[in-house]
Amino acid sequence: MNRLLPFIGFMLLVGLFGFGIWWNTRHDPNAIPTPLLNKPAPAFNLPKLYEPAQTVSKADLLGKPYLLNVFASWCIECGVEHPVLTAEGPSLGVALVGYNYKDAPADAKNWLARHGNPYGLLIADEPGQTAIDFGVYGAPESFLIDAKGVIRYKHIGPLTPDVVAKELKPAIAAMLKEAP
Amino acid sequence: MTRQLFRMLLAASLLLGGFAHAQAIEPMPFKDHAQELRFQHLTHQLRCPMCQNETLADSNAPIARDLRNQIFRMMQQGRSDEEIKQYLVARYSEFVLYDPPLKPGTWLLWFGPLLILCGGTGVVLAAIRRRNRGDGAAEAPTDNGDDW
User: Fold this and answer.
1) Which of A21, A98, B39, B71 could disulfide-link to A119, CB 3.0 to 4.6 Å?
2) Gene3D superfamilies under this entry (chain A) (predicted)?
3) For residue B73, what are the domain limits?
4) In the CATH hierarchy, which fold is given to the domain comprising A36-178?
């Protein structure tokens, strides 16, 4: 029995490290859990990208669920996410609101002209001040906000077909089942 | 001639280098030196959410710059360090604190090392006790008189 002891210790370590590897393949070790999940989205009042004289507030968007997608023309991963949004957007069942983050309006418009515009509504946060209230620290990030203005789901990083199928769509389904 | 050109180039690069450095640090209009020290102390205790191995003070990421500006604004409004930390935790979770708060979720983090220390001490004590109990005869041949 005593002879087996080092081997058992070794196997325990193997198990621990194996668990660490398994855990990290399923979780993004850099993702910060948002404290805002299942809490009311922060209030905002931001200009529209194409009509900067008009602003859109949180209250304006109440009543219908929407997916708030934080993007920027300088963000490389957003280019990866964009075709997925374009392809999956219409079948999501919620409105797609583009949140242009820390971007020059001209750059954002050029980028959208080049890659296509999947958004029903586009708001711009050039100084990035409101984004702090959302806990945004990089783009892309996506927030699923329900009709009452509560954040139901958040994804940091690009929405991939896998994430859309396994996380976003179930979250939308659960939300719509609760309050259609 | 070449030497003069070289000098001019050197001067220009030093000047430009100086500008680039100034831009990275972005001097802020602090009220006094004490406030600047307080700002430095606070931003060194907070983690940049984007590049998680850097403090807010050290990071050049755009979000770190925005958060530094926000902290500066809140200081001008007379908010305390605790209020500023609460503000950031409410948005970016406790991840931004380098010093994790003591609560049930972090008990293992705080007391885990102590637990391991106690466990290790237990193992060592058990081994010593077993050895003293008379297994000494079996262990004796290890010491064969060679002093090296």
Assistant:
1) A98
2) Glutaredoxin
3) 24-99
4) Glutaredoxin (3.40.30)
Pair B83, B114 in one domain: no
CB contact under 8 A, B66 and A129: yes
CB within 8 Å of chain A, chain B residues 35-94: 49-50, 52, 62-63, 66-67, 70, 89-93
Contact B91 A128 (CB under 8 A): no
Chain segment B73-87, per-residue pLDDT in tens: 999 999 999 999 999
* pLDDT value at residue A66: 96
Residue B29 lies in a domain: yes
Contact A128 B62 (CB under 8 A): yes
Q: Which two tokens stand for residue A52?
A: 């900067």
Structure confidence by residue, pLDDT tens digits, A57-75: 999 999 999 999 999 999 9
Q: How many domains does chain B have?
A: 2
Distance in angstroms between the alpha carbons of the first and the last residue of chain B: 72
Q: For chain B, how many helices (H) and strands (E)? A: 6, 0
Nearest CA in chain A to B123: A5
Q: What's the token pair of residue A169?
A: 């769509």
Distance from CA of B88 to the nearest CA of A (A): 8
